[in-house]
Design brief:
Elements lengths: L2 H22 L17 H6 L3 E3 L12 E5 L7 H12 L3 E5 L5 H7 L5 E2 L3 E3 L13 E4 L19 E2 L6 E5 L4 E3 L17 E8 L2 E6 L7 H4 L4 H9 L7 E5 L7 H16 L2 H30 L1
Parallel strand pairs: 1-12, 2-3, 2-12, 3-11
Antiparallel strand pairs: 4-7, 5-9, 6-8, 8-10, 10-11
Length: 303
C-alpha cells in the first residue's frame, strides 16, 4: 500500500477515534449535567428527567407547569434576560441558584428585592463536615413534606433584602457571613445569623425561587442528610411533577465541553434531511468509485 493510500485510511480512522473519545468521555466541570463525578449534576438530571437547554429559544411557549434551574456563572445578555422574564410572566418557575456568580444581575432585571450577599455562609455548630457545610435551620412547612430534618449547604452564601414573608428557609442562629474570606467572624459587616438562604416571590403568573447555594444539587450533596427529599420538595413547590429544564448555556465551558458541543452540532446537521442526503450521496460515490476508476482505466487502454 502506498503512503498516500495509507494516510487516506489512517486519518479518517484517527478522526473517528478522537470523536468517539470526546463524545463518550464525561465532563468534569462544575454543575455539568453529563458530569458523573462529585461536582456534577448527573444524578439530579436523571432523577428529575431534566431537559438540558443550550439556548432560551427552546423554552416552552406555554411555561405553566415547568421549572427552569438557572446557575448563572456566565452572565445573561439582554435578549436572554427578556426571554427569561417572559417565561416567568407566563407562568413558569425559575429557580436561580447562585453564590458568587451573576445571580444579582438576573434578580435586578426581574425586579426582585432580594440579592445574593456574596459573603461565605459558615456555621461552626450545625454543619455536615465542617463550618463550610452549614445546616439549614428553619424552613417553611411545604419544604418539610416527607422526612426533612437535616439539610446541608456547601460553600454557600445568603440572601439579603426582600421581605421575610417570602423567605422559605433560614440558616441557624449560630451561622455567620464571612465577608473578607478569612473564614472567621470579624467586626464591621460580618454578622451573626440566622440568614435567609431560600426565598420565593410571585412574578406575573410565575414564580422566582432564589437559592443561595447551587451546590445543593451536585452529586456528592444529594445523599447527605435529607437533601434529596428537600430538593424534591423545592422543585415541586409550586406544582407536583413539573417539567424540569436545566440551563447549560450559562455555565463555564472547558475545552472538552466545547468539543462535545461541536460534535453535537455536527450530529444535528448530519441527522437533518439535508445531512442524510449528503451522507447517502457520499456513500454512493464511495461505492461507485472503484467502478469509475476501472472504467476510466479501460478507456485509457482503449485510447
Amino acid at each position: 500500500m502506498s503512503l498516500k493510500k495509507f494516510l487516506m485510511v489512517l486519518l479518517p480512522a484517527m478522526l473517528v477515534l478522537a470523536s468517539a473519545v470526546i463524545w463518550f468521555y464525561p465532563s468534569r466541570e462544575d454543575f455539568r449535567q453529563d458530569n458523573p463525578f462529585w461536582n456534577g449534576l448527573s444524578v439530579f438530571t436523571a432523577e428529575f428527567g431534566a431537559e438540558v437547554l443550550d439556548t432560551y429559544d427552546r423554552l416552552p411557549p406555554v411555561s405553566e407547569g415547568t421549572v427552569l434551574v438557572l446557575i448563572p456563572y456566565v452572565p445573561l445578555d439582554g435578549a436572554e434576560l427578556e426571554r427569561l422574564a417572559v417565561y416567568v410572566e407566563r407562568g413558569g418557575t425559575v429557580i436561580i441558584m447562585d453564590d458568587f456568580g451573576h445571580g444579582n444581575e438576573v434578580l435586578e432585571h426581574l425586579d426582585m428585592d432580594f440579592r445574593f450577599s456574596g459573603g461565605i455562609l459558615l456555621d461552626p455548630v450545625f454543619n455536615a463536615r465542617n463550618k463550610l457545610f452549614p445546616s439549614i435551620g428553619r424552613t417553611s412547612a411545604m419544604l418539610e413534606a416527607g422526612v426533612v430534618d437535616r439539610v446541608y449547604l456547601n460553600h454557600a452564601t445568603a440572601l439579603e433584602g426582600g421581605s421575610e414573608d417570602d423567605v422559605l428557609a433560614w440558616s441557624t442562629r449560630f451561622s455567620y457571613l464571612d465577608m473578607d474570606g478569612n473564614l472567621v467572624i470579624g467586626e464591621g459587616d460580618e454578622q451573626q445569623g440566622p440568614f435567609p438562604v431560600i426565598a420565593s416571590v410571585e412574578a406575573g403568573d410565575g414564580f422566582v425561587i432564589m437559592v443561595s447555594d447551587p451546590s445543593l444539587l451536585i452529586n456528592s450533596m444529594m445523599d447527605i442528610g435529607d437533601n434529596r427529599v428537600f430538593v424534591q420538595n423545592l422543585v415541586d413547590y409550586w406544582g407536583s411533577d413539573p417539567v424540569v429544564y436545566i440551563d447549560r448555556a450559562h455555565l463555564p465551558e472547558a475545552a472538552l465541553d466545547q468539543a462535545k458541543g461541536g460534535l453535537q452540532a455536527v450530529y444535528g446537521h448530519l441527522s437533518s434531511p439535508f445531512g442524510v442526503s449528503v451522507l447517502a450521496l457520499a456513500g454512493l460515490a464511495l461505492v461507485l468509485l472503484p467502478f469509475w476508476r476501472r472504467g476510466h482505466t479501460h478507456m485509457e487502454k482503449g485510447d
